[in-house]
Amino acid sequence: MQYRRFGKTNLRLSVFSLGTMRYLADAETARQTIEKALALGINHIETARGYGKSEEYLGKALQAGLSVPRSQLHITTKIPPTADADTMRRYIDESLEKLHLDYLDCLGIHGLNTWEHLEMVQTGCIQAVQEAIADGRVRHVGFSTHGSLDVILAAINTDLFEFVNLHYYYFFQRHAAAIQLAAAKDMGIFIISPADKGGRLYTPPQTLKDLCHPFSPLELNYRFLLSDSRITTLSVGPANPEELIEPLRVADNIHELTQEEISALQGLENQAKIVLETDKCSQCFACLPCPENINIPEVLRLRNLAVAYDMTDYGKYRYGMFENAGHWFPGMKANRCTECGDCLPRCPEELNIPALLTDTHERLSGKAGRRLWG
Q1: Which backbone phi and psi does 25 adopt, to 5 degrees?
Q2: How many whole angstroms separate alpha carbon 322 and alpha carbon 151?
Q3: Can you give the pTM of this predicted structure?
Q4: Which site from 80, 105, 191, 256 is most exposed, i.e. has the minimal number of CB atoms within 10 Å?
Q5: pLDDT under 50 in the chain at which residues?
């Protein structure tokens, strides 16, 4: 296991962090998963108020005693933005009680996804967070986000936060500007769910496996991220101890990309250019806003992946979240398109966007397989 400085927090975190959203079968499974993570060198555990019994299970494990002393273990919990300071004060106290802790190493504002959330932080709950920092109950504050790039950049530019948890992977590089800005401000950078949200890379299609050879798609995505020294840590979300083994095979491998890895990534890029020669969405976002609130770039990104790499199962999984996940994954499904034509003159690729939306809906409107681990 390698360790990196978590930005201006000055904490040294393992390059993989234990995410605890999925170890919820029972308290004993949670304890075993935590102990396995510690044995493999992980020193950062992330939980959240909204993760079912995750805080409670972690608290029981901490209370019973772990193989690593508290002083060498970094704990983050996440709490949603609140419109008033009193609610945040209560939430912080409740999390500390469940975790059986006197202090949190890090508190993340959970799901700072919209402009309204950002305003709630600035005018509401940040006062309570700053009080908790002043009295020692919280040592560092950051935010996690599933929001749009403009919201993320605005949140970073408030200078209220010491770290950011966000989506960024080989197959989703939209947030590159946020990585750059956060690094310039010396913020810790935590990548959310690179295996699952990054492409369901634990169950890759054969086409993708062949293109990534001699690396696995999961390994190549991890290496794409870990070779970037601006990134501190990646989440891994096992449901049991065994699911930690495969991801952590690359936990010592944080050097620059090798020529062989660069060639494999170039092969992926070439495949997309060839297969999507005339209808590849370049993800410029010029097509927005859509009058029907269709997230056209994300819909067409999923189509890109399905057509170029046979990543249809991943596409179905993500596409099925439209209209079902609120601000966590906003936008309407592609069949809401009325062919109004508003997007057409704005597209620099001159794509027939309504036709591609129809094609995407036909490809991805079925059910996907179950999730394994993050």
Answers
A1: -60, -45
A2: 19
A3: 0.92
A4: 256
A5: 369-374
